[in-house]
Specification:
Layout: H1 2-7, H2 12-22, E1 24-26, E2 37-39, H3 40-46, H4 48-68, H5 73-79, E3 82-83, E4 89-91, H6 92-98, E5 102-105, H7 108-116, H8 120-125, E6 130-132, H9 139-145, H10 148-158, H11 179-204, E7 213-218, H12 227-243, E8 252-257, H13 265-282, E9 291-296, H14 301-307, E10 313-316, H15 328-334, E11 338-341, H16 347-354, E12 360-361, H17 366-375, H18 379-385, H19 387-398, H20 410-416, H21 425-443, H22 446-458, H23 465-477
Parallel strand pairs: 1-5, 5-6, 7-8, 7-10, 8-9, 10-11, 11-12
Antiparallel strand pairs: 2-4, 3-4
Helix pairs in contact: 3-4, 11-22, 12-13, 12-19, 12-21, 18-19, 19-20
The structure holds pyridoxal-5'-phosphate.
Amino acid sequence: MRILVDKHNYDWHRAWTITERTFSYTNHTLLPEALETWPVWLMQKVLPRHLQIIFDINHHFLRQVTHWRPGDHELLRRMSIIDESGSRSIRMAHLAIVGSHKVNGVAELHSRLLQETIFRDFHEFYPGKFINVTNGITPRRWLNQSNPPLSQLVSSRIGEQWKKDLSRLKELADLSDDTDFQDAVAAVKLENKIRLSNVVRNQIGIELNPHALFDVQIKRIHEYKRQLLNVLHVITRYNYIRHHPDENVVPRTVIFSGKAAPAYRMAKLVIRLINDVADIVNNNPCIGDKLKVVFMPNYDVSTAQLIIPAAELSQQISTAGTEASGTGNMKLTLNGALTIGTLDGANIEIRAEVGDDNFFIFGLNAEQVMTLRQQGYNPWDYYHADAELRRALDMIRDGHFCPDDCDRYRYVYDALTHGGDHYLLMADFRSYVECQQHIDELYKSPRAWSRKSILNISHMGRFSSDRTIQEYANRIWNVKPVSR
Ligand SMILES: *Cc1c(COP(=O)(O)O)cnc(C)c1O
């Protein structure tokens, strides 16, 4: 608007039409704390002309809203680009919606929640502006480049067209009952697990058994992603093995990786807790190979490309309604991992593609999460009702994993109890642990596991970024391919 009006002397109306037709807004999160707002005083100081234009845009916009619902002052307050409560600030998401011809979420649930919750007024005011474009990943990086043995195995059976048309992977479904192919997929996985084990030995000095189930949670460390729920399960498993030393449990290696934002105290503490739990578990002689815990430092795309081909279980355990889409979930499935996940983000669509029998869901869905919070959620109910959960939490509280600094994780315990457990870990714990037991059962039958792994890989066609980009081109950018 500034360039068109100030520099090229367009009148406001013509400049606005061009602006609106040019811009589109892809929302990437529902978490209100992640939606930017900028103080008016700061904007006044740094970009005074932009601020003036924002006020003008808001004036035109609110006039239209007034015509739409005359006299509804509460509505004007909610929809305004300027938040007038307290010291005034600019709601950048509102500005983006008003200034765009399309607004999209990045998975079906996320797009629906945008329309029904945080942007509900805008969806009613602008019918047809809100759409969904489910995220995707590039099969060139996340299979061809990162996992050569699996790529070559796939190509040996169905040719190479999958690299440019991922839907061709569906031809693998016919091979899911072929025991030779099941064994070949398992052999490739083992090869990748050995490769990862060698890196883990050299980088962090932990010796892994490549025949253990490789259970992976790699993503930014955040409370909503619930790495702590995974830790609570790890501790529960540690306790079970210690108290049943003669039982033949399915050996597990739980691998974490992820960075914390520098000022995010809880996320930093979770990284430290994982490392402390790893030290205790990995050095307990009664545990041996039955449980290993690994935290890979400095998570980045290169680390992801190393870990993902070796993963057998993909942990996608965010509180339902918080993960916009996720793409790690897609990368891991494409590489043959089975998912343990909540009905959140693109997990829902992955499950619909691969089939309910080939996907491990647990926990509350987004509606149940909203209802439980409305009713008044009390984490202590779960603490008192579940002895294994209570034991795991008490061990965190009492410094079992940091004997010379007993209070180190008090803050973690407090957040899940007195603090109200905002992301409902306690509510989902029992369902999660039971789901993990079903996973152990399946792992005892390698061919049944491999069959499900093949069915997962073969139904990943929809999650190619080629499909995603095609949808953006058709439905948002209105661009056509050049003929060549
Ligand atoms: C794919 C990827 C992510 C996103 O992971 P989610 O599990 O979807 O949060 C983050 N970081 C890196 C390095 C990735 O490759």
